[in-house]
Specification:
The chain has 173 residues and is of the alpha+beta class. It contains 5 helices and 8 strands; from the N terminus they run αβαβαββββββαα.
Length: 173
């Protein structure tokens, strides 16, 4: 068997594994390190989620997944990805490290998976269209605006990995 004939099966196996992992993630539901977005229609909201992940414990954003855990996917992943990249470039300071993966769920439907590690450059800020810079943190399954005190805790937490951020000690929801 030649090498060229083997490549499609390797690709198919990798796609099947990625799809299986996607379904497992979606089953878990949104939480501290997982967020679903149907589309990238509101890029500011996507950037806010990614900033919150970077400022907290890291996480995964799935574009093409509904809050009800259905996976309709998106038809034009290149366009959605471009919108997110542009929004991150223009409205996230400092620049954010992330890894993007495209997962095929059918012949013409995809999910974009964006993984963000906890950032050594935190806190990251959203600077959307000349508005005041705002930082976000992740609490349970929500990304919330951080107070100035919380920003200082985030800043210090990049140096001290034993520092725990708890809802009751920092703010009330």
């Amino acid at each position: 068997m030649n090498r060229i004939a083997m490549k499609p099966s390797v690709v198919a196996t990798a796609e099947a594994l990625a799809l299986r992992e996607l379904r497992k993630l979606v089953t878990e539901g949104e939480g501290l390190q997982l967020e679903f977005k149907r589309k990238a229609t509101y890029p500011e909201k996507i950037v806010r989620e990614l900033i919150a992940f970077a400022n907290t414990e890291g996480g995964t954003l799935l574009i093409g997944v509904d809050d009800d855990k259905s996976i309709p996917g998106i038809k034009y992943p290149d366009e959605e990805s471009h919108v997110v990249k542009e929004a991150l470039h223009h409205s996230c300071k400092p620049a954010l490290a992330y890894h993007e993966t495209l997962i095929s769920i059918s012949e013409n439907r995809y999910v974009i998976r964006i993984d963000v590690p906890p950032s050594p450059k935190r806190p990251h800020y959203l600077t959307w269209e000349r508005s005041e810079r705002t930082t976000f943190v992740r609490v349970f399954d929500k990304s919330i605006k951080a107070s100035k005190e919380m920003e200082e805790i985030v800043r210090r937490s990049k140096k001290n990995t034993n520092l725990a951020i708890t809802k009751s000690s920092c703010w009330s929801i």
